[in-house]
Amino acid sequence: MIVTTTPTVEGRTIRQYHGVVTGEAILGANIFRDFFAGIRDIVGGRSGAYEKVLQDARETAFAEMRQAAAQAGANAVVGVDIDYETVGGQGSMLMVTVSGTAVTLG
User: Fold this and answer.
1) Rounded distance, CA 48 to CA 40, Å?
2) What is the rounded CA–CA span in Å between residue 73 and residue 68?
3) With contact defined as beta carbons under 8 Å apart, do 102 and 69 qualify?
4) Where is average pLDDT lowest: 14-18, 51-55, 92-96?
5) 1, 77 contact by CB (below 8 A)
6) Alpha carbon distance 35, 53 (integer Å)
């Protein structure tokens, strides 16, 4: 399935619109990740633990969106928007939402 942030797919015609599809994922970061991320903040560097959680959340959200598009009979999703938020007490949860328009390309 083609998934793109652009409103069209070059060289392809949109034959049918199936509506907006979304995918969401909320994943928690545990206390050990928080602790080690805090140390990284002090000494500098990247937080591999948080990057992995964020990557997992993004992949889950995209998979949900693709599944919703397939169930609608689409073979592509155009105009995709990706949003990242922290939720929960003291931002302890990472939320990724993706949305786009499910379409059938010719």
Assistant:
1) 10
2) 9
3) yes
4) 51-55
5) yes
6) 15
Residue 90 backbone class (left: φ over 0; alpha: ψ -120 to 50; beta: rest): left
Q: Contact 103/1 with Cβ under 8 angstroms?
A: no
First to last CA, the chain: 13
Give the Cα separation of 76 and 13 in Å (integer): 11
- The confidence band for 96, taking pLDDT boundaries of 50, 70 and 90, is very high
Residue 7 and residue 99: Cα distance in Å, rounded? 12
Alpha carbon 93 to its chain's center:
15
Place of tokens 């922290």: 86
